[in-house]
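Morning - uracil inputs below, output right after.
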Amino acid sequence: MIRVPELIERKRNGGELSDEEISELILGFTRGEIPDYQLAAWCMAVYFRGLNGRETHALTDAMIRSGETLALGSALGRRVVDKHSTGGVGDKTSLAVGPIVAACGVPLAKMSGRGLGHTGGTLDKLESIPGYRVELTLDELVEQVREVGLAIVGQTGDLVPADKKLYALRDVTATVDIVPLIASSIMSKKLAAGADAIVLDVKVGDGAFMKTLEDARILAEQMVDLGRRAGRDVVCLLSDMDQPLGHAVGHALEVREALETLAGRGPTDFTELVLHASARLLALSDLGVDVEEGRRRAEAAIAEGAATAAYERWIRAQGGDPDPDVLPTAPVVRPVVAEREGIVARLHALPIGIATLGLGGGRRTKDDAIDHAVGVVCHAKRGSAVAAGDVLAEVHARDDESAARAAETVRSAYVLGDEAPRGHGILLDVIE
Ligand code: URA
């Protein structure tokens, strides 16, 4: 039996733990044999001393072994792909990438989470679609992926229970923002869900976990390494989250924007990221194509209407109504106008996320109910030229009072200047 105080002390002093010690620590904690306060102290020691690659792998492996695992590829007899984003403001990428990849004949199965704080979760966006079922049994999931090539569901409690418990503990002990703990948390869930190839999207900027490109690269490299050690193909995109992605932020608004994008009418930055992610997924699939050909096929799926058709098949298969006219709408729409002529020098993502949260479109605690209709549409983005009185953004709210409050926050997100800001594209780097 391990002596937990010794392990905490060794990590606190900068030492290493063996694979067996990490395994016993995590599995003992999951079974309730090791108390929260000891794991909390260990996480804080890791915050200051870190984990090396082997220890991070041992932690990920122990978390996977704490619950069930799926082998989707062998159940379907095909290579199955998955995608994951570290979360940002207006990030509806999976809603567009899933149908594009499915339209190209590649099965995609994704287990998704709910949003917390200023970032929205894919499941919350999908639940704005009337009738959409986020819970499928394992058999239903496999059957749906076989039949329509795509399923996005909530994560079952049987998968990686250690992460559920550990994340809740980290959340209240200031130990969430630790790269090896984030890497093992994300990758344990992705690896346990059984995809053969995974495209990760690490967001970088003021609206994301990772504020700098350097930190994002370190996280990306650790996740790619964990995938490699587990024998899976993993590619990590690093993408800009200094401003919201696309125009729409808020659940039903984002579903509409994803649908517009599938029809070829999406915002430039969002469309670009969707095409990058889709091309990478197709290149990792069993189609045998390279990234350029993957992109060509993704573009064709949009242009020929196959991506929209795949979206409709998928939503119907999961019990939902794919007609955008049935999505909820907010009763109050309030414009935020430019007070002067200029060029948008900055559009901070974080206040847009916070404004959406204040409108009722996000959760402060995990049991909060959310309003799917509300949000913000940022018409002007970084680099847009505006005249005084032009609409910068629109707030979609439940009532006038919350609309007025959100409008002030949205106004504070915009910085107008006189010169075009130095631009960069949505994709900042790719780690393979
Ligand atoms: N997302 C996760 O799933 N886990 C983390 O630790 C951070 C972000």
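Note: DSSP finds 17 helices and 13 strands in the chain.

O.
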